[in-house]
Amino acid sequence: MRYLLFSLTGLALCAGCSERIPENLTAEQADSLKAVVERKIEEKKQIARMRIEFEESYMGKSLSRYKPIIKKYSKRYGFDWRLITAQIVQESGFKTEARSRVGAHGLMQLMPGTAHEISKELDIEYIMKNPRENITAGIYHLKKQYRMFPEAQYSDRIKLALASYNCGIGRIFDAQDISRYFKKPENVWINISPNLALLKKSDWQLHLQVWPIGKPPYGYFYGYNETINYVDNIWRLYEAYRVIL
Known about the structure:
Elements lengths: L1 H6 L19 H30 L1 H19 L4 H12 L19 H11 L8 H16 L7 H14 L1 H13 L7 H8 L7 H7 L13 H21 L1
C-alpha cells in the first residue's frame, strides 16, 4: 500500500490529458513533446499495473465483496464511494473482526455507544456484528459529522468530518474556538489541525485566554497526532483510489 501511495504521486494530473501533437513544431520542440507523450503513456501503463495489483490484493478482493453496499450508501449520503473505501482501509484494513483498544468494532470501527444511537435512528440491530450494517452505520455517522460544518469548502468539510469521526465533534469545536481566538478561518483543516495539539493541559495559559472556564469545554486532548494522521492518510488513499478505481 505504501508503494501504491508514493508511486501515484502526481499521476492523477495526467488523467484525461491530450496526446495530440500540434503542427508547425521545430525538431527540438517535437522531440520534447514526444518525450512528454511517451512519459504520459508510461504513466497510464503504470496506473493500469497498479489497478491490477490492487484488484489482486487482499484489499481489492475485500472491496469487491463490499463494493455494492459501499456504493449504495455513499450515493445515498452524498459521498464518493472511493472516499469511504479509503476510510475503511484506514479504520480496519477490511478486517471484519477488527477491534480497537478503546472498543471500536467492525469495518468502520464504530464505538458501542455510537452504534446503539445509530441503531435507533436507522432501525438496524446488528451494527457491531454484521459488516454490511457496520458500513451503513459508518457512512451515516460520517454524514452526521459532515452536516456540522456547512460553511466549509468541500475538501475541508470532508476532512473536518473525518477528524470528528475519529476524535469526536467536541474536539473539533474546541479547536475552532482557538482559531476564532487567533482570528483565523475556523472551517479550514490546515488551521484546525495544529490547534488540536493545543488542547493539552500544559497549554493552560492559552486556555485561560480562549475560554472563561480556563480549559477546553470538551476536555483535554492528547490524541491529536492520531487524528491528524488519520485524516491525512485517508485523503492520500482517496486521491490514489480516484486514479486507479
